[in-house]
Specification:
The complex is a heterodimer of chains A (about 800) and B (about 160). The two termini of chain A are about 50 Å apart. Chain A is an alpha+beta fold and about 800 residues long. Chain A has 3 domains: about 1-40 and about 475-620, 2-Layer Sandwich (Aldehyde Oxidoreductase, domain 4); about 40-140 and about 215-295, Aldehyde oxidase/xanthine dehydrogenase, a/b hammerhead (Aldehyde Oxidoreductase, domain 3, Alpha-Beta Complex), CATH 3.90.1170.50; about 305-470 and about 630-785, Aldehyde Oxidoreductase, domain 4, CATH 3.30.365. In chain A, strands 4-8-2-15-12-13-14-25 form an 8-stranded mixed beta sheet, sandwiched between helices. Chain A has a 5-stranded mixed beta sheet with strand order 1-36-33-32-21, with helices on both faces. The longest helix of chain A is centred in the last third of the chain and has 28 residues, at about 540-570. Helix content of chain A is about 25%, strand content about 25%. Chain B is an alpha+beta fold. Chain B folds into 2 domains: about 5-80, Ubiquitin-like (UB roll) (Roll); about 90-165, Orthogonal Bundle (DNA polymerase, domain 1). Chain B is about 35% helix and about 15% strand. Chain B is built from 5 helices and 5 strands, in the order E-E-H-E-E-E-H-H-H-H. In chain B, helix 2 crosses helix 5 (about 140-165). Classes of the chains: A alpha+beta (about 800), B alpha+beta (about 160). At the A-B interface, helix 1 and helix 16 of A face helix 2, helix 3, helix 4 and helix 5 of B.
Amino acid sequence: MDTVETTTPRPHQESAAPRPVGESVTRLDAHEKVTGEALFADDLQFGPNMLYARIKRSPHPHARILKIDASRALALPGVKTVVTGQSTPGFIGLYLKDRHIFCTDRARFVGDPVAGVAATTEEIAEKALDLIDVEYEVLPPVLDPEEGVRPDAELLHPELGSYEVANFIFPQPGTNIPNLFKIRKGDVDKALSEAAAVVHHSFRVPHVQHVPIEPHVAIAKVDERGRVTLWGSSQSPFAQRNLIASALGISQADLEVVAPYVGGGFGCKAGVSMEALAVAIAMQVRGRPVKLRLTREEEFYTTFVRQGLVAHFTMACDAEGNLTAMDNKFFWDGGAYAEYGVNMTRGAGYSSSGPYDVPNVRTDSYCVYTNHPVGGPMRGFGQPEMQCGLEQCINRLALEIGMDPMEFRRRNCVKEGSNLVTGMKMHATGIGECLEKAAEAIGWGHKDPPSAPHKRRGKGIAAMWKAPAMSPNAGSSAWIEMSEDGKCTLGLGGQEIGQGTFTVMAQMAAAALGIPYDWVRIASPVDTKYSPYEWQTVASRLTWSMGNAVVAATKDARRQILELVARSWEETPEDLDIVNGNVISAKSGRSSSLKGLVVYGLARPGDQGWIGGPILGRGSFMPTYVTGLDPETGQGERAVVHYTTGAQAIEIEVDLETGRVEVLRGASAFDMGKAINPDLVRVQMEGGLVQGISTALFESLQLQDGVVRNPSFVDYRIATSADAPRDMQSIIVEVPQDDGPFGARGVGEHSMVPTMPAIANAIHDALGIHPGAPPFTAEKVYLAMVDAGLVK
Amino acid sequence: MAHHRISVTVNGSVESVDVPSNMTLLTMLREKLGLTGTKNGCTAGECGACTVFLNDEPVNSCLVLAVECDGAEVRTVESLARKGKLDPVQQSVIDHNAVQCGFCTPGVLISARALLDRNPDPSEEEIRDALVGNLCRCTGYVRILDAVKDAAQVGAASETGGSR
């Protein structure tokens, strides 16, 4: 089943799933967010005992730290402590532990934390930073990933071979390569020599920033026994508990992370970025809350960046337009520490064919240490950057053999049973339907005249796929507890970061239990002390993974209720059902409200005691079937849990006088298995499309000698209300996921994956110029038109 | 740092507040009065998350010093709903799914309400212009534009109803 919808809200759609799954119910969090009542981390009040922290940062991209003298800072009235790397000797890192909380012997990027101050006011803390004297020995920096892999490159982590690392990451000791992921499938050289057409192109995709409107903030408090509470804007409260506790050598049970609403994440609030700094400082001033709030400037250069990529593609097809070979080399600018970069390198590798059936593939995907800001996850986790070049090459190959680029994609896209790039067999997928519907939505094949003589129009299309890139055994858990009147509270550990997860979890719980949607409350804020475990709010994995845990917990509660009532009514649970909050019997026709019985149980006849008790359902989910991949070939039985696929088609107009590219309309079609809340899926597609347009047309973190030159909203422009295209179509395609709740799989990140290449392909259609790497700014497009002789 | 005692009307109630010379209106609202609905996104007047009414004009409260507000009238997002009834623009934002993370929402609502107060029937271009200083990274803006447009129609309908 599928629906085609425009951006205006539509009535609830018909659905085979139990209500309210498949209905566009109102977001649970909307009311408190429009009244200003919703609490974000910076809104929490800690009273006059709170201290303010600021961070002294390295001004050098690469330097040895010879001496730190904090005596002048400590003498400043109001300064309570200065913390340096001496206090934080432990290592921290998600997949590869290569970092200290504060630098110890060397600083590896401009912004690397060298010391932290806590003082009674933010102004005093800021002033104290100038009074900390740091003596550096400046070292030569590595500022390009292709330079970084050369044998004579300056080594940034000489200790790489001794770091603790996850078993699916392959560091190369003695180099700047914390991970090298390889694919060797078929015979690429033979296929290239026999091909009817071959294209070869390279792309340098720049760093960009996530730019949540809420900056990072963390408040930490440590009690006299060393037990820690951390409040923060976080996508990963449980991962923070684990990583910070192990870096500090304390028990995970003694570190409580409280995580209220997140004011935009997009990946930059996943894992640990700045939160451990607040904890390390709070360790030195026990009993006092310490607040660290990043400035917007720090937000741009000290937190995770979407890492830069240098990508080289060679791809070939036969005369009929069948893809025969791909030969790819990716050099990821991982930055100073590996963090998520090592796994993006891996994800790009196991998705390096794009969503196509290609018999011969050779890929080398290198994560490279550089003296740039730390690469982290950003919406799409490497796929927008990688598929930016890949999908432009697909277009060029199609045109090379004279085939329509949309037809070329439809012919080659993966299908159920396709032998994927890792040897995994593809599951059922709706990518062909996504391509057709997206193309149809913008009138593919038909060229409208431009709106003015000095403008040119063009249409472009791009397909995509993406799997959740995560630890193979990333788990979820949930509980559901009933209140006296039959309403319930759902415990979960995934974070509401704007994507609407609380709402869809409540919908799934209501559907699985048999109660109205508005009877479900979420136990929030997520608090690692009280909430059930959740790996992280990343990878578009919650609807699928946490959804499975929520459904399991709800079914557990439902079973307990039905068994209790069956026993009381002397019937069997199989004859009973819960409908709209009432237990009903198909056999006897009896009916009972849930009220009372879900807490107090039921009385035996004749005042002879009671049966039952408070209902508490629990459930968990963890994928158990993901296998390892051979380090030399990248081949294995099942590389990932599943792939979400989709396509975008975009129509643009280019102004020949200015080079400005305007997006006239964009159609997104994605296969998320089952839309639990169709309108929330559509707003993900719209928001992702505009974020994709923003990265395609405007965004680039300008790094010069390791320094970010545009760390403000004035110099780093993101899309505004003036830039959003009026005509956005969001198309839902539903080919069910076999192990997803109600058939669902994730769709949050995917909508910005194909946008950059779809716009690039549209620019080519309009001008006959291949714009290459983003951003396709007016200046860049204008100069390209001058070079091509289109304008003088 | 010199301190000043100022008198300012915030959301209809007169407050006497002791503020240092360098304190912004934003900090005063959030830290002195506990009105945390107004958000701090950049402290530089670039993102619009801190937009409030100052004497009926929308301003970036991070660019206004608290001492400048002596004798002034300030209204924040917390004032929009009256007696439990949402402002039409708040209701419309909910109805259009024009809120995601919600961090820009208070500023967006103030800018939108300011627009509708001075122009009850704005064109789409006028709505885009009025919101161009309110950055949103989640929604892609079009739902917000639709929500404001619909709120204008609701407002117009209720005025017609009131005059009958």
